[in-house]
């Protein structure tokens, strides 16, 4: 049995302590002194401020510390203490990539799936960056592009384009190729059909199914995806960046991908893979483990790390 205590309820964690039972019994049968009442009232005020912050994050988040201070009227020092308590008890989190404060997500419901994935990814990316030093992103496929949910670029000592493009092309990016390669055949076909209908030059390859099939087979055989050399989204200096990526798998289904980026002239792909591929795979597995399993999934091939097996749909 885990020794970690369960998170307190918002009321419990913001009161700061449970009022002793004996105090309640005494209060029931005699008048409470002003000193005793004052202590309780201070804690109720702390509760009121904490709930105000939680409500604001849930209604209007993500928000910066300055925005929270303006909206609540609470000074920044007090806000930081409230936010630290909420984060410790898994009721709030601070984004790695943008530094904004979010309300934490606890349930895997469809609208909150990306929020939950970003939430569980943040500490994993932090640890991976501390070890590899180079930054990583976590992304998912939506409507013809890869959307970056979380990143450790602000934490890396190396300057690898700190400006995050939250929509990345599928076929030239390492994360896009990883998600495509480890998707179920029917999902892959849907993605390629969507890409082929778009006018972007980065999506033209989707209409050449034989070339795509070779790209996918090479990726599966290698056990990880690589970024197309020279690819960039909006800033030309992005073309100097290389990346490898592996899928985040849930019952064999690629629900996202995690990458590792570096400046191409600094290290070769072979050196990066030799030094950090297993770290990257462990990070992806740790993220996947923290995500609740879907109720049903489609079949897909998992040949990550050279193994080939079929994952059948389960109810």
From TrEMBL:
One of its GO terms (molecular function) is DNA-binding transcription factor activity. PANTHER family: DNA-BINDING TRANSCRIPTIONAL ACTIVATOR MHPR, HELIX-TURN-HELIX TRANSCRIPTIONAL REGULATOR, ICLR FAMILY. Pfam families: HTH_IclR, IclR_C. Residues 104-293 form the IclR-ED domain. This is Winged helix-turn-helix transcriptional regulator. Keywords: DNA-binding, Transcription, Transcription regulation. SUPFAM superfamilies: GAF domain-like, Winged helix' DNA-binding domain. Coiled coil: none annotated. Residues 294-315 are annotated as: Disordered. GO terms for biological process: negative regulation of DNA-templated transcription. It comes from the Bacteria. Residues 44-105 form the HTH iclR-type domain.
């Amino acid at each position: 049995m885990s020794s970690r205590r369960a998170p307190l309820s918002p009321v419990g964690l913001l009161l700061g302590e449970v009022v002793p039972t004996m105090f309640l019994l005494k209060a029931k049968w005699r008048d409470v002194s002003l000193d005793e009442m004052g202590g309780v009232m201070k804690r109720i005020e702390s509760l009121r401020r904490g709930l105000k912050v939680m409500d604001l994050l849930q209604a209007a988040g993500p928000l910066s510390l300055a925005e929270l201070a303006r909206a609540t009227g609470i000074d920044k020092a007090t806000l930081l203490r409230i936010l630290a308590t909420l984060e410790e008890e898994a009721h709030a989190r601070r984004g790695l990539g943008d530094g904004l404060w979010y309300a934490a997500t606890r349930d895997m419901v469809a609208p909150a799936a990306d929020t939950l994935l970003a939430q569980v990814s943040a500490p994993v990316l932090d640890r991976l960056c501390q070890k590899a030093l180079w930054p990583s992103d976590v992304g998912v496929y939506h409507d013809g592009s890869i959307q970056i949910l979380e990143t450790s670029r602000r934490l890396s000592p190396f300057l690898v384009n700190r400006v995050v493009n939250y929509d990345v092309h599928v076929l030239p990016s390492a994360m896009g190729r990883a998600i495509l390669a480890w998707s179920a055949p029917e999902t892959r076909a849907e993605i390629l059909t969507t890409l082929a209908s778009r006018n972007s030059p980065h999506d033209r390859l989707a209409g050449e199914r034989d070339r795509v099939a070779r790209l996918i087979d090479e990726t599966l055989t290698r056990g990880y995806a690589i970024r197309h050399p020279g690819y960039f989204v909006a800033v030309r200096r992005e073309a100097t960046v290389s990346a490898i990526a592996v899928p985040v798998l849930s019952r064999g289904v690629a629900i996202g991908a995690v990458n590792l980026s570096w400046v191409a002239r600094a290290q070769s792909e072979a050196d990066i893979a030799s030094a950090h591929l297993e770290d990257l795979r462990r990070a992806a597995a740790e993220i996947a483990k923290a995500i609740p399993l879907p109720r049903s999934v489609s079949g897909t091939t998992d040949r990550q790390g050279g193994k080939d097996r079929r994952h059948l749909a389960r109810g």
